[in-house]
Write a sequence for this structure.
């Protein structure tokens, strides 16, 4: 199957340039060989973006997206009016000009290359990954949290560092990425915990599995008193998912686990140091 060289860039929404924070809201892709120029923007499921920039009026995002959508539509119309070699050159030149660094609320990430048998299908795949986060499974999210906590805890230079360990016995056990011992005695446990799944039922499924594990370990006195779960949850505006998240956190609290927002670095540091 023939593959064509394509270039793409992620469309970024950055309302506050002074903080450098941005959200991925689309992808543009160009394939000069075939004369293809396409784009996909997040125009429907934008609650995640507006929740992230919670002080920003929603109409700011909608207005910005409509503006870039109009610009990209005009570019695509111009390209479709060209033909042959002229069209290929036009695609290349327009893409380079489009993704050039700009000081604006909508900007473009670094241009990247990819080989694709179907530029249209590749555009959809990239949009799913970068914008709709099709790759973000609970396991992926928790690996990301684990890396962040590894950096945070490592920066503390603790005399008794946290290490990955399996806790329990032959009948009941669970593996935790951050376990602290004092001598041979279990002292503290920290677990990154993702409860931001896309559906309430998925939150319950993942949460229940760990509530059950903790309950059994507690019943057998196999956990230390100090256990913290650094939890990633859904936005409060997503009522059904947030209620599921709260229910799981409440059940963990009843089992003597301290659920803490994974972004609360100060709380996590205090737990590790005390």
């Amino acid at each position: 199957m023939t593959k064509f060289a394509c270039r793409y860039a992620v469309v970024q929404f950055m309302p506050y340039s002074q903080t450098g924070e941005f959200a991925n809201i689309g992808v543009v892709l160009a394939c000069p060989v075939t004369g293809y120029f396409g784009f996909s923007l997040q125009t429907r499921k934008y609650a995640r973006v507006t929740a992230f920039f919670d002080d920003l009026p929603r109409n700011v995002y909608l207005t910005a997206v409509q503006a870039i959508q109009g610009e990209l539509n005009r570019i695509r119309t111009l390209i479709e009016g060209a033909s042959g070699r002229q069209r290929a050159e036009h695609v290349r030149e327009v893409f380079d000009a489009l993704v050039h660094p700009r000081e604006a609320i909508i900007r473009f990430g670094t241009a990247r290359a990819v080989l694709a048998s179907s530029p249209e299908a590749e555009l959809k795949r990239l949009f799913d990954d970068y914008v709709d986060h099709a790759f973000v499974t609970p396991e992926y999210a928790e690996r990301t949290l684990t890396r962040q906590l590894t950096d945070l805890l490592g920066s503390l230079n603790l005399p008794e560092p946290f290490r990955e360990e399996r806790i329990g016995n032959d009948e009941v056990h669970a593996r935790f990425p951050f376990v602290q011992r004092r001598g041979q005695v279990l002292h503290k446990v920290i677990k990154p915990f993702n409860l931001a799944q896309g559906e309430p039922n998925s939150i319950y499924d993942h949460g229940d599995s760990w509530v059950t594990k903790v309950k059994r370990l507690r019943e057998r006195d196999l956990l230390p008193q100090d256990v913290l779960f650094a939890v990633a949850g859904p936005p409060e505006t997503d009522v059904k998912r947030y209620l599921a998240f709260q229910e799981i956190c409440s059940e963990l609290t009843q089992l003597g686990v301290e659920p803490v927002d994974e972004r609360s670095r100060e709380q996590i540091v205090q737990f590790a140091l005390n």
Observations:
- The chain has a mean pLDDT of 90.
- Residues 4-130 form one domain.
- The two ends are 60 Å apart (CA to CA).
